[in-house]
Amino acid sequence: MLSLFPLPSFRSVLNTKVPKGFSTKGSKVFRKMQNGEWSFELYGDHTIKTTFRPLGYTRGEQVTDAVIKKPVSEILVAVNEEEQLIDFGNVARVLMKETKYSYQFGQEERDVLAEYFSEYEYKGFKFRLQKGEQVFGGGERALPLNRRGYGFALYNVPAFGYGENTENLNFSVPFILSSKGYGIFFDNGSKGYLDIGKKDPKVLEAGFTSGELTFYIINGKNTGEVLRHYTELVGRQPLPPRWVFGNLMSRFGYRSEEQLKAITAMMKEENFPLDAVILDLFWFGDSIRNTLGNLDWVNSERWPDPDRMISDLKGEGIKTILITEPYVLMGTKNYSESKNYHAVDSEGNPFTLTNFYFGFGGLLDLFRKRAQNWFWTKYKKQVEKGIAGWWGDLGEPETHPAEMHHNLKDLGFDRLFSADEVHNLFGHYWNKMLFKKYQSDYPEVRLFNLNRSGFAGSQRYSIFPWSGDVGRNWSGLRAQLPVMLGMSLSGVPYIHSDAGGFTMGEKDPELYTRWLQFASFTPVFRPHGTALGDIDAHSAHVESEPVFYPDPYKSIVRRYIQLRYDLLPYNYTLAYQQSKEGKPLTRPMFYDNAADPELFKAEDQFMWGESILVAPVLHKDATERKLYLPEGYWYRFFTNEKIKGGQWITENVGIDDIPLYVKEGAFIPAKAGMRNTETFTSDSLEVTYYPCNGASSYAMYDDDGKTNSSFDKRKFELLHFEAGNSNEYCTLHMSSNGGMFADRPDLRKIDLMIPGLSARPSYIAINDQWIEVTSLENGSAQTQSTKAFWDTARAILHIQFSFTGATQVIKIPR
Question: What gap in Å lies between CA 419 and CA 403, rounded to an integer?
Fold first, then answer.
């Protein structure tokens, strides 16, 4: 029997009979079984939502807000009882095989067999894994990037001093991505687990202790496409303030205004670019313990005038960022007044923690509006002083006993929820609270929220998570690649590390240098470590700022920090690409191409955006580095040497540099010499084009770097670059979309640089006007008045011109 009915209501079709066991409500198709009821719903052309509600299940509330995309409301659906098929208008189909289901998009079957299970305290789903299938994602894991063969908890938890092969960390995301061209998102924030072929090599299993039992199957041709559809479902990161891509000075911890200003002065004196300082818990107390919850400057001797200090730093272009935690401890100035906003026991009384490292006290119940409002008053007091951003620590929450309960009445639920039922959502709702409060009170401000925990979709609340309390050792450094790439593949784009390592281990200049070289090509650059002085004799005192390291290490680090600043136009454009299309800033090598199996093996390298390949040095005393170049041609970043891809190569690696390559056809915009992002303007740009035989294009994003929602407000500009090649010419186009924003330059001076040419061309044409190419032997004379010149020393062609927004066409004879 085949029945056709349009959703949301089949009753609109006269005399249409729905097959026995099936029904509809709104846009859903239901199928009743002996042990419960399945429902299916289409979310666009690439995603199907599936939910199972077991008979007698009393804890099936949906308490996440992860999914923001709306389901398809009008579509013709066919249900074929004999063939056991639900056909969503030939867009997608669900094939029913008794209690198992597989999914098709178009004519392509995903061959993902799903079934429900219930074992012990867990309920969930099992899926069949195919031979050779690789599985990625799951959030923050210091495991191999392919997580098949591993099992881990879906339970946010800190791991002090961790390194490689650490399964469970601070930020779980119940989303996995398969090499077979699909993803699965489990929209459940309760305590759970993922077993990806550990118990049974052919089975992926996801179990949860509470909440709605829902998953979304997401289709795509490659990793990038699946991730794009997933981020359409759960949201993408808003554009960050431009200063996020600067150098953020941080340590545990600065203990006084005098110390802080002395170190910032040293950084400037030694020509280190700097954009922000981040203050750990000593801004609200003089000790590590029994101070959380003060949330104000309590020592007037160490911090005599915070308002003036913040203002003075701001005058130098340096932002001030403060740490906060969601715990309020006994004896702090806010304990009594906050007690009514704490999480509670099963009887509804404020819950007192007695086994918490930092002291006795309570946890703010940030699911409650009154708790959020109270907490926000403490934030806003500091914002009014000039605080530019926030650091949210311990938000897993770090200590969260199962017997603690939370009040979710403001979310529409009447009963108390145990800690395990909402554990993974606590940090998420904290992120949401801060974001929404800023939107309400400071609508033009782009939020910076440095945090370490959340849930799927937290990225849309402008979070910048770091990878937790990593060990200060080579294992800790190596752990950062799978952590960073795994989070990127989970839709959380701004993951980064305590560069240099946070805890344990002695001062190691080589490790520090290698870590900061790597960190220069990550979403946030923030050297951090433990330097407590006399406050903790058991903790190693290792400064995180490069001024405290000897040469040559200090000079090498300075050069890499400066390189990061020089690449600001490229880096900032990555933020636009993420916000607009869901592209991660750091990408695994197989992101766009699953056809080359070697790309899956190259786990210890990554792409910084579309064009720059980064191969960090991850072992002590390394003199060589093996890496894989994908198909095509690649240019060595520092020498412009052109190398054929599709092969593994071995490079010599002195301490000065790590291997960096640029893909042929790339355009890399840069702005040389900045020491602070406040000084950035695109009135002059260096743009390097790396020639290829085919066509290529690139769009550089530009705005004022601070206006919130500038893209939605049309306060931005895109500078378009295109390249095409014929037998006679390499032809380059530069144009603008004509966008406007505050302080947009009316005229830009462009220095277009082209390496990789076999010889100096005699002439080039700009808008059909032929110009002689002069020779510049030393690479540093009369460049301002020269329209086109050849840098003999570096074998680079420079073409300098003024750009008003009108299309420029440049022809270079081949």
Answer: 7
**Measured distance CA(123)–CA(102) in Å, rounded:** 20
How far apart, in whole angstroms, are the C-alpha atoms of residue 792 and residue 796?
A: 7
Helix (H) or strand (E) holding 438: helix 419-441
* Cα 6 to Cα 13, 342, 535, distances in angstroms: 8, 48, 69
Tokens of 760: 């100096």
- Would strands 717-725 and 696-702 be described as parallel, antiparallel, or unpaired? antiparallel
Q: Which residue is it, tokens 């530069």?
A: 734
Check: CB of residue 161 under 8 Å from CB of residue 470. Answer: yes
Does 253 sit behind a cis peptide bond, omega within 30 degrees of 0 on the bond before it? Answer: yes
Q: Rounded to the nearest 5 degrees, what angle is found at the Cα of 261, between the Cα atoms of 255 and 262?
A: 95
Confidence of residue 6 (pLDDT cuts 50, 70, 90): very low
Could you tell me the pLDDT band of residue 566, with boundaries at 50, 70 and 90? very high
Buried b (16+ CB within 10 A) or exposed e, 759-772: ebbeebbbeeeeee
Residues 6+ apart with CB under 8 A from 611: 570, 662, 663, 666, 667, 668, 698
- Give the length of the chain: 814
**Distance of alpha carbon 201 from alpha carbon 218, whole angstroms:** 22
How many Cβ atoms sit within 10 Å of the Cβ of residue 128? Answer: 16
Residue type, 769: Q
DSSP β-ladder status, 788-791 and 774-776: parallel
The whole-number average pLDDT for the span 778-789 is 60
Phi, psi angle pair for 328, to nearest 5° = -125, 120
Residues 531-553 have pLDDT tens digits of 998 887 778 899 999 999 999 99
Helix or strand or coil: residue 409?
helix
Structure token digits, residue 118: 């219930």
Residue where the block lists tokens 């050779």: 132
472 three-class SS: coil
> Which residues, at least 6 apart from 508, have a Cβ–Cβ distance to it below 8 Å?
472
Give the DSSP H or E segment for 375.
helix 369-383
What is the model's pLDDT at position 138? 98
- pLDDT tens per residue across span 12-71: 332 346 677 888 887 889 999 999 999 999 999 899 999 999 999 999 999 999 999 999
How far apart CA 765 and CA 492 sit, in angstroms, is: 45
In angstroms, the CA 100 to CA 158 distance is: 37
Give the pLDDT band (50/70/90) at residue 326: very high
Cα distance between residue 639 and residue 692, in whole Å: 17
Predicted TM-score (pTM) of the model is 0.96
Could you give the residue numbers annotated as active site? 393, 396, 469
What are the DSSP calls for 313-372, one per residue? HHHTT-EEEEEE-SEEETTSTTHHHHGGGB-B-TTSPBPPBSS-TT-SEEEB-TTSHHHH
CB 463 within 8 A of CB 454: yes
DSSP, collapsed to helix, strand or coil, labels residue 581 as: helix
- Residues forming beta bridges with residue 772, ordered by sequence position: 763
The pLDDT tens digits of the residues spanning 175-193 come to 999 999 999 999 999 999 9
List b or e across 686-717, with b for residues whose CB sees 16 or more CB atoms inside 10 angstroms: bbbbbbbeeebebbbbbbebbbbebbeeebbb
Dihedral angle at the C-alpha atoms of 159, 237, 463, 527, nearest 10 degrees? 70
Asked if residue 134 lies in contact with residue 197, where contact means CB atoms within 8 angstroms, the answer is no
Q: How big is the CA angle at 273 (ends 272 and 276), to the nearest 5 degrees?
A: 115
